[in-house]
Write a structure and sequence with these properties.
Elements: E1 4-6, E2 12-14, E3 17-18, H1 19-25, E4 32-36, H2 37-51, E5 58-62, H3 69-78, E6 81-84, H4 87-95, E7 103-105, H5 112-121, E8 124-127, H6 130-143, E9 147-152, H7 181-189, E10 195-201, H8 212-230, E11 237-239, H9 258-271, E12 275-278, H10 282-285, E13 289-301, E14 304-309, H11 318-322, E15 328-330, E16 340-346, E17 355-363, E18 370-373, E19 395-398
Parallel strand pairs: 4-19, 5-6, 5-12, 6-7, 7-8, 8-9, 9-10, 10-11, 11-12, 14-16
Antiparallel strand pairs: 1-2, 2-3, 4-13, 13-14, 13-18, 15-18, 16-17
Helix pairs in contact: 2-3, 2-9, 5-6, 8-9
This protein binds ligand LLP.
The site of ligand LLP has 22 residues, from helix 10 and helix 11.
Length: 405
């Protein structure tokens, strides 16, 4: 059940559309992102199905993963909330029509002006530090509104991921450590006109592929919530953040689904009468999109073979930044005489860090052939730059099917 599939003719299709035909129809020859709207719907529904039976859960889509306005409007129309880490993400979410009661403003460096907007609009705000609490109190006074806050707890759980995307462990810059919990509870108590404590939040990291990690964290979090409730706070929300990984390797390995994730925390949530908030980014949007590139040429240096394409680290930086693997395929089927070799797939940017994939077995493509990088819906366009004065790529979506069958 996936939007990008190979047809019987050997060509790659997005929903019912041949990717090569999409390339041919473009006036401008440059890399572009291609989405399937039906896949976005399908991914959101997977979370809805997983959450069925829980009382008023909130899915807060992490906008940092992909802030395309159409994508936001579509997710909002399906019932999604939004998770924001900057004033501009907050403004964009409001413009896309997200219900402020389903929005959470996160972050370790939120600015006063943005907090004032959050207070005025009535979105949930996470407290990340002592100075953050001070800013939220000031924002509440300026806005003349009481702010519903969650404490972002750092539960010190190892998410077993690349260190750059681990956030809930001891030395991370995010959240509040256990030892300081009492200080924050006292500070909230001291500001009854400005702050209403409604819940606790954690986010462990990203690309997590073992759901037991969420289970351990949820158990720790419920423990914190018990301590907080013991002091007379009536708090309702447990926010377990985002972080579920996806099958970047396309090996067919069975990875945990949203259902597996929710099932590991369901009992705990129900036992304490809590309302669950989750903040998925990647698992909602990554597999809905490819970066479509065109082959500029093929070369060999020493013992290395290179496929040079028009896309690069400017359009898609995850391989360069995290050594991330994203699956690469040619759009058309190989010709019978095409030789299969091991290639590095690289862009034209003036850096040796500029690669989209290393050591990939591919049939030797001809000039102008289409080459896609899969799972490019999350943290690709939103992290694209204009390095070397490349233009940020256009984005198109296919909306032929209403469902992925
Ligand atoms: N909530 C919070 C507080 C977060 O910091 C994040 C992601 C999410 C939710 C969504 O996590 P997801 O479900 O997408 O894993 N640029 C990196 C990923 C950075 C993730 C930052 N925080 C990458 O390309 O892998």
């Amino acid at each position: 059940r996936h939007c990008f599939t190979r047809g019987e003719d050997g060509y790659l299709y997005c929903e019912g559309l041949k990717v090569e035909d999409v390339m041919e129809s473009m006036e401008e020859r440059r890399p572009f992102y291609l989405y399937s709207k039906a896949q976005i719907t399908r991914n959101f529904e997977a979370y809805e199905e997983a959450l069925a039976g829980l009382p008023s859960p909130i899915v807060g889509y992490a906008i940092k993963a992909n802030n395309n306005f159409k994508v936001l409007q579509h997710l909002r129309s399906l019932g999604s909330g939004a998770v924001l880490v900057s004033g501009n993400e907050l403004r964009l979410a409001l413009r896309a029509g997200f219900d402020p009661k389903k929005c959470i403003f996160n972050g370790n460096g939120k600015l006063l002006a943005d907090l004032v907007l959050a207070a005025k609009e009535g979105v949930f705000v996470n407290i990340d530090s002592e100075f953050d609490l001070e800013n939220i109190v000031n924002a509440a006074r300026i806005a003349g509104k009481k702010v519903s806050v969650l404490l972002r707890i750092n539960p010190d759980v190892d998410p077993q991921v690349h260190p750059y995307v681990a956030t809930g462990n001891k030395n991370s810059k995010f959240g509040i450590r256990n030892e300081k919990l009492q200080w924050f509870l006292d500070a909230v108590k001291a500001h009854p006109n400005e702050l209403k404590l409604v819940g606790a939040h954690c986010h462990l990291g990203s690309t997590i592929t073992k759901v037991d990690i969420f289970k351990d964290a949820a158990a720790l979090m419920v423990n914190f919530i018990d301590q907080i409730r013991d002091q007379g706070f009536e708090i309702d929300y447990l926010n377990i953040g985002g972080g579920l990984g996806i099958d970047y390797y396309h090996t067919g390995a069975v990875l945990p689904t949203p259902m597996d994730l929710i099932d590991t925390v369901r009992e705990l949530v129900v036992s304490r009468g809590l309302t669950l908030i989750i903040e998925p980014g990647r698992s909602l949007i990554a597999n809905t999109c490819c970066l479509v590139n065109r082959v500029t040429g093929v070369k060999t240096n020493g013992t290395k073979n290179f496929i040079v394409v028009d896309g690069s680290m400017a359009e898609l930086i995850r391989p360069s930044l995290y050594g991330a693997y994203q699956h690469i395929e040619l759009v058309s089927p190989p010709t019978p005489d095409a030789e299969i070799s091991t290639f590095d797939v690289v862009g034209p940017v003036c850096e040796s860090a500029d690669f989209l994939g290393k050591d990939r077995e591919l049939s030797t493509p001809s000039k102008g052939a289409g080459l896609v990088v899969h799972d490019a819906g999350a943290y690709c366009m939103s992290m694209a730059s204009t390095y070397n004065l490349k233009m940020r790529p256009p984005e198109y979506w296919v909306c032929i099917q209403s469902r992925i069958f």
